[in-house]
Amino acid sequence: MPLNDDQNSDSDSSRLSESTVSSSDTEYSRQSFNSDSSSKPSSPASSPPKVITFDELMAATRNLSNWTLAHEIAVNANFCIKHEDYPQNSFAGTVKQIVHKAFWDHLESELNEDPPEYKHAIKLFEEIKEILLSFLTPGANRIHNQICEVLDTDLIRQQAEHNAVDIPGLANYVINTMGKLCAPIRDNDIKQLKATDNIVELLRQIFRVLDLMKVDMANYTIKSLRPYLWHNLVDYERTKFQEILEETPSALNLTTEWIKESIEDELSSISDESSSCPGADSSSKPIISPTLVLNNGYLKLLQWDYCKTIPETLITDEVRLQELREKLNQLKVIACVSLITNNMVGAAVVDVPDFTDHLKRISLPLLEGMNKKSFDLKEALNAIGVQICSIVNKSLSERGLPTLSEEMQSNLMGQIAHIVEKNNPVCSLIDKRIQLFMRSLLALPSFQKCMPTMPGGLSVIQREIEFLGSQYASIVNFNKKVYGPFYANILRKLLFPEAAMEKTEVETSSN
User: Fold this and answer.
1) What is the signed CA dihedral for 349, 352, 354, 357, rounded to 10 degrees?
2) Cα 367 from chain centroid?
């Protein structure tokens, strides 16, 4: 990722963080986690428990909002603000429509009086003036002065007293100025404004287009900020999260539990391996790599139940991780279907041109939304089975070969439908191989661009899974850069509690 690696090289806490990211040996990890680096100012520190006031809670909420927004702008190239209105048939939409109609009808009646009443029209031009000025960049003095001169509300009020206000002339100036300031996408809107004769309708449409221009300006600002945010995002997110942690000391509880579960899984795995090796020394305390613990935790996110709250340090990427999980589940089903088909009727499909592409084309639309509770996976698998039998039989017929028997088709469709069953052996095998690929991907140094070897059975989804894997690795590597010091403190306390306790006692006695 195009982040400045020098950001993390100036403090001992950063070296501590790197011990969780790099694939260093266990002794080095133990040294790093037992070092005194956490006492440095740049290392994250948690505050003692305290009562939080409402103002402090609101401050933490604002920090959280800024933190998540900055992250989304920086990492999501498609992030933008959209202009959305209430649906017309909704209660809010109906109320808005009634209120707006009443206002514009009242304005029209005022302008039709003899002599005309300009009070509300002047207020509108005053508001238009402020909006136009907000679009200007620093240094645009000429147009700034011109807007202030033409839309001088004091002068307009004086003209109104003598019934000499040129409302159409002012509206025309506003439209021409909007044409100079708007994005090219608004050119058609400006043309439509120029073609509008009714002055009240024209003012109403001017405000509509100004609202669109506000959104355009916000998106332009976001686009301009993105490179700066991206360059400084590691330090910014770490600082913001530290502020949240100081306001809310419990802000790492879920993260601690997530890492603790990963440690327990690793200990269980080591215990199973020891019991299968008769000569293993079961009395010695197992040594666990912090890097392995963290990577196992990240792998669990690919199977995370998103009804549960995700760890706090991953909130900003929750939607992306959820989308990855959903796409991986679709690819897993396609790989299972491909493996079953090749095992049962491999000879029949070997000469079917682009069979794997056919399989993906028919499967992906049928598996769309498969992670929703209302989705019927068995029905989708039955439909995929029918389509596969149809493709195979068509190819066999075109080559003058006998088609699949009814029994063979029934067996094939039955095996495909059984994928939905819990602990299905084919599904379990494919799932393990996807996990193996992702684990290998996380073990690669972040600067290495090549992909690990693709496990057998996944060739049908190789292109797609490599693409998702690169997205997943980017999320993980960036998360480690930002929150490595926080993870280091948690892992030190959980993996080396004696050292953490000794350090606490030393600090207490020195104070």
Assistant:
1) -50
2) 22
Nearest one of 162, 152, 163, 164 to 122, comparing CA atoms: 152
Alpha-carbon distance 480 to 477, whole Å? Answer: 5
Measured between its terminal Cα atoms, the distance across the chain in Å is 42
d(CA 335, CA 331): 6
pTM for the complete prediction?
Answer: 0.62
Q: What is the mean pLDDT of residues 41-51?
A: 41
Determine the Cα–Cα distance for residues 133 and 92; give it in Å rounded to an integer.
30
Cβ count within 10 A of residue 137: 7
Q: So what's the pLDDT on residue 30? A: 39
Q: Return the minimum-mean-pLDDT range out of 87-91, 155-159, 219-223, 494-498.
A: 87-91
Mind listing the pLDDT tens digit for each residue in 110-165?
888 888 888 888 899 999 999 999 988 888 889 999 999 999 988 988 888 888 88
Kindly give, in sequence order, each residue whose CB lies less than 8 Å from that of residue 264, ignoring residues fewer than 6 positions away. Answer: none
Cα–Cα distance between 425 and 380 in angstroms, integer? 20
Closest CA to 117 of 128, 105, 109, 127: 109
What tokens does 216 get?
């355009």
Q: Answer yes or no: are the C-beta atoms of 220 and 183 closer than 8 Å.
A: yes
The CA distance from 497 to 511, in Å, is 21
For residues 146 and 447, give the distance between their C-alpha atoms in angstroms, rounded to a whole number: 54
Token look-up 């995370």 returns: 304
- How many Å apart are CA 491 and CA 502, to the nearest integer? 16
In this structure, what token pair is assigned to residue 151? Answer: 């839309």
pLDDT at residue number 284: 60
